[in-house]
Prior knowledge:
The complex is a heterodimer of chains A (450) and B (38).
Chain A: H1 2-17, H2 23-35, H3 47-58, H4 72-89, H5 94-117, H6 121-147, H7 169-189, H8 194-222, H9 225-238, H10 242-259, H11 265-272, H12 281-299, E1 313-319, E2 325-331, H13 338-369, H14 380-398, H15 408-427
Antiparallel strand pairs in A: 1-2
Helix pairs in contact in A: 2-3, 2-6, 4-5, 4-13, 5-15, 6-7, 6-8, 7-8, 7-9, 7-14, 9-10, 9-14, 12-13, 13-14, 13-15, 14-15
Chain B: H1 2-24
Amino acid sequence: xxxxxxxxxxxxxxxxxxxxxxxxxxxxxxxxxxxxxxxxxxxxxxxxxxxxxxxxxxxxxxxxxxxxxxxxxxxxxxxxxxxxxxxxxxxxxxxxxxxxxxxxxxxxxxxxxxxxxxxxxxxxxxxxxxxxxxxxxxxxxxxxxxxxxxxxxxxxxxxxxxxxxxxxxxxxxxxxxxxxxxxxxxxxxxxxxxxxxxxxxxxxxxxxxxxxxxxxxxxxxxxxxxxxxxxxxxxxxxxxxxxxxxxxxxxxxxxxxxxxxxxxxxxxxxxxxxxxxxxxxxxxxxxxxxxxxxxxxxxxxxxxxxxxxxxxxxxxxxxxxxxxxxxxxxxxxxxxxxxxxxxxxxxxxxxxxxxxxxxxxxxxxxxxxxxxxxxxxxxxxxxxxxxxxxxxxxxxxxxxxxxxxxxxxxxxxxxxxxxxxxxxxxxxxxxxxxxxxxxxxxxxxxxxxx
Amino acid sequence: xxxxxxxxxxxxxxxxxxxxxxxxxxxxxxxxxxxxxx
Lengths: 450, 38
């Protein structure tokens, strides 16, 4: 009850502040969408619904001086939203399709809405911090509970004790690792902390260190193998130069060697199945589902609509402890991969749009992150795009093993790229997309635009 | 207890970010600009 009151009071504060700066209505919507308070408290009304209504009404009052061309991914997201709606009309399981469409379309439209509602650096970064703050609540709860001993696959104490969004352990472990580069950007580069950065740099770094420990503890607590992949990607892509990458990987290996006795046995057992996946029914089911999705798409190139996998009839084989092959059957399962989820449900056009949105954003964030940096006065969008690039790579690789194609996280990253791209294009002209040179010529820089 | 603590930390971060945004972008689109009386 106290938690609910606290949440409602904070939401009211953001809502009232929205009358001073209407972008805050949308920032509140993003925060509520990621935090998902309905799953662990009673907020009387749906906070995301309230913020959503106010954001739409407040759009007319938003200062639209800050304009700029939108990136390709914006239009791809619009096309994808239209396509998933069309496939829902001929879905194989309409009673499953429309409820999923209801929340999936809200996620996809986040990509479209972010560049329209968030137009300045301060707004983009506040939204980024709001998303991060929502993730922190989930990560901290799971991490502390893991430290005090309730870790384990499907038994870890979490903020959301259901199998949806951040209540699902694989998704939670992925998002926990993904939030590490977010925390780094906020503490090292954000405008919000600029005035305190020089004075409290040591404390900020200490806070970042503590957060890394919490995020990794959360990942270990979930015992989900997805987290290991996410961490491996972060270690590989997080550092820029080859030498730094090698140092980071070496330090991680040393830390793991000494920390092994402190890691819960359940998690280590679960991680060890990555190499002995044939004996693990969860891993072999995944491969069987992926094969099923490929075959389904061959027969139904336009997809089977949302909820298709609830009716999937899958035979899979596992090895028992004696090495004997056993065939088992499962009716209805998760897609266990964003790519196969979209391929089965949305067909070839859907997977094309989905991959195009990820690939174009990956290129876009990479190009901006490779712009020449000004050492005297660092340009914010270069560091921000670098963070988005790392987050997107972590998501694209790790979510190959979780069916979260329509959860908000991906669309939040794509949306932030749209907003940042607009800011960049307002200030400079980008070179042709496939130029061998990554430098950016001409144009006067107006770096400190806030 | 742990849940409440984590949510509290999260809410503090959010409130501070919102307050900073308001301070950076001091504007109220629905208010008429003040006209000096003297």
